[in-house]
Structure prediction request, 387 residues.
Amino acid sequence: MTPEPTAEPTPEPAYADPAPFTAADYAARMAAAAQSAADAGLAGLLISPGPDLVHLTGYRPTAETERLTLLVLAAGQDPVLVVPALEAPDAAKAPGAGALTLRDWTDGKNPYGITAPLLDVTGRFGVSDNTWALHLLGLQRELPTTSYAPLTDALPMLRAVKDARELARLAAAGAAADAAYAQILHVPFAGRRESEVADDLAGLLRVHGHSQVDFTVVGSGPNGANPHHEAGERVIRHGDMVVLDFGGLKDGYGSDISRTVHVGEPTPEEQRVHDIVREAQQAGVAAVRPGAGCQDVDRAARAVITEFGYGDRFIHRTGHGIGVTTHEPPYMVEGEEQPLVPGMCFSVEPGVYLPGRFGVRIEDIVTVTEDGGRRLNNAPRELAVVE
Prediction:
């Protein structure tokens, strides 16, 4: 039995253009993060270059090197950014620099000795997941009675709940990805390599305002059965199902959308599988509401696919968070009981993958509202026919 297509709500208008973040915005974020750390029983947070530092200060070093750059946050203390002296002028220009103190160090000095006085010598600290082992071990040598926990474990909600201006950026990024999809439907597919269509997608994302393209998956025919297939040299053929999954950063915030198209008219089986995935994706979105667990979204989508006999062919989680990166907590997966909170944003992307034959995936970014969920992607979800 094939599910009947589900009626979908009329898309809401996009958010207004976002206003720039101010030093006060970053100060509030840092204060909230320090308090969250204290509430979690941590002495503070140690934030290395990467998405956490961008979120909290707006600072993104021009290059992530072996030189220590570290934001130290603790409740009741002013934020301090330890930074190499040669990079201090750039750090001072960061949007959030006015809300923190810079402490620079020069080559030849011990940066861990400079950092140590800022830390509780017996404290347990949350540390950015991507902190170099070089730096963590350096701090441990300097302060052997300290201990550390990765932020994903210690404070998984650190970046999960977005404010109105963050939501505006995510909505704009989603609308740009929708526009790129609308245009890619009009380029030739048959007779071209996957990599050529991927280049088209990347170009369209940039045309629509993306400063960074993170991925352009083009999985044609049997390659579509690999969820993370990288576009290669396979020539797309008439009769292929093609999974498109693409996204990146626009105004510092992420987009991520998947649609599946068909070169020429699909077979009844191909249409049926696509209808099942579409029904599962709708069920996952419908499960989004405040207080529901992250795993409830996964369960709702997975139940549909299992009901129609393809449960063992849905081989990944249903979704992941998105913000200043395209993949971040929270995750929509069995066992994740974190309750959904208004302002959380994440993907809902069930799929069915038939090895050696084809795959289907449909993905939208969804934000939790006060009474449910709202899609930030509104591109058509029907199986589009391309040439």
